[in-house]
Amino acid sequence: MRRSVQSPRPRERNPLGSSGQGTSALAVALLSSAVFGLSGSFAKSLLETGWTSTTAVAVRMGGAALVLLVPAVIALHGRWHQVRDNWKTLLAFGFIGVAGCQFFYFNAVERLSVGVALLLEFLAPVLMVLWIWASTRRRPGGKTIGGALAAIAGLVLVLDVTGDVRVDPIGVLWGLAAAVCLAIYFFITARQNDSLPPLVLATGGMLVGAVTMLLLGATGVLPTGFSTDDVVLAGFVTSWWVPLAGLVLLSTVLAYVTGIVAARRLGSRVASFVSLTEVLFAVLWAWLLLSELPRPIQLVGGALIVLGVILVRADKRAGLPGEVSVDPGPTA
């Protein structure tokens, strides 16, 4: 799942621009969702051969940060004070938005289907609304309440509690932990200013996330491990570095860069709605690459969750941070 970055406020006034520009921007946004959706399938193929979530997250974010480091330095134009002024945001993005979300999501993917794990993480906006409601005692609007109820009903169907095949409860907890982590990240980044270039925020966050996972692994707090055994993708046996390269270059570097471009052209609110297609792409990729498809009742539940999130985001009275869009960010 991705972690998103903020787009400049002035762009919000005319998100689609001319017809040609609007079509191009939407295409970029869909490309971002498509490659972000690959992360679950790539990661699961590695996890099934002996990789741990700790190692997968560290290599994914560390490799992507190295690729983006030079463009990020250029984007700074020597204004290193921007990094110093936003160090808290960088730490929050890296520790919560990158390390936390990715680690929890990968652990969920290890025990659940890719689609179900991502749907659980996408409950973050609903959790945010429930928290705002409980903390402020201010009743949300009808769209928000309807969206929350639809998402909760969808969650029940996704978990298929009355079905013959039981969903791994530990995997569900990992997925919900990813959702909580994503919700916290949104609240934190909503308070930042706009002085830090989005590419610098993404690169710095990835470096922090990679270092965090390496330290936790080196000290024995989290298990580490990798394997050079071949993996199976789309029915073909291939080398382990193929999904690893795809995880770094496609579902991280390309996904973040196109996500930033889309957010700038469309505005954060429109981009956040388009990013919901990531769930559809993730299910499609899991079916094509892993022969993995949620059961029909889970697909219906997934549709309800997406509908619920759409309603919540459409309600400007919901109290959600207006300048934050879902993935960037890391929900996969």
TrEMBL record:
Region (Disordered): 1-21
Name of the protein: DMT family transporter
Family according to the record: Belongs to the EamA transporter family.
Compartment(s): Cell membrane
PANTHER family assigned: EAMA DOMAIN-CONTAINING PROTEIN, OS03G0707200 PROTEIN-RELATED
Domain EamA: 25-159, 170-312
Chief subcellular location: membrane
Keyword terms: Cell membrane, Membrane, Transmembrane, Transmembrane helix
Membrane topology: Multi-pass membrane protein
Cited InterPro entries: Diverse_Substrate_Transporter, EamA_dom, EmrE-like
Native source organism of the sequence: Arthrobacter citreus
Record field: transmembrane: 59-77, 89-106, 112-133, 145-163, 169-188, 200-220, 240-263, 270-290, 296-314
